[in-house]
Amino acid sequence: xxxxxxxxxxxxxxxxxxxxxxxxxxxxxxxxxxxxxxxxxxxxxxxxxxxxxxxxxxxxxxxxxxxxxxxxxxxxxxxxxxxxxxxxxxxxxxxxxxxxxxxxxxxxxxxxxxxxxxxxxxxxxxxxxxxxxxxxxxxxxxxxxxxxxxxxxxxxxxxxxxxxxxxxxxxxxxxxxxxxxxxxxxxxxxxxxxxxxxxxxxxxxxxxxxxxxxxxxxxxxxxxxxxxxxxxxxxxxxxxxxxxxxxxx
Length: 249
Prior knowledge:
Layout: E1 3-4, H1 5-12, H2 16-24, E2 32-33, E3 39-41, H3 43-57, H4 62-70, H5 76-109, H6 131-138, H7 140-151, H8 155-173, H9 183-198, H10 205-217, H11 219-225, H12 232-248
Antiparallel strand pairs: 1-3, 2-3
Helix pairs in contact: 3-4, 3-5, 6-7, 8-9, 9-12, 10-11, 10-12
């Protein structure tokens, strides 16, 4: 049975405009397009749309979803089972946050008194929010190699790396009002490039430049970078771009 795009929209709650967008980017194309230009979707496209919506609910970007669904290794049943586990964990975390919110309201009203630890129950920042972005931009190999290197490192080594990264950021942040093309800034950026490659990332100059662009394109990066000083993310993007261009010259 083929369904018109309007019928699919009514059935799924996804707008016609969104379905047209999915078609334009090759994420979800209709089984058939009539001579009059009407899109018609089969049961197979509905199953694919369900997968897209599950992935979207879990925070995946459209480009990444397309790559997953087109992978020759993709298994729908396995994906559904993994999505169920992830959504159950998300529900449990939201339940914990709701309890924390309700308890905080009572605390503000003076009905109970929360400890500092209790005020933050349900928040979880253990997962790296940038790993998916890195995988999409530079592939799994570099990320896996870096993760393995860090996993094999002793805790004191991981701590040392964190301290070195922070020291480099503070050094560069102190220069953020300078021209990013100056030799002083470029020497410091060279240290950042060497530091990243020393951690096992194996950044090419192009990937290094892309990372700099990500600092200003992704608000999560910008927010974290600018903790070291207003405009630090923009400064780093410019300086890293210049360094990459010089390495490729």
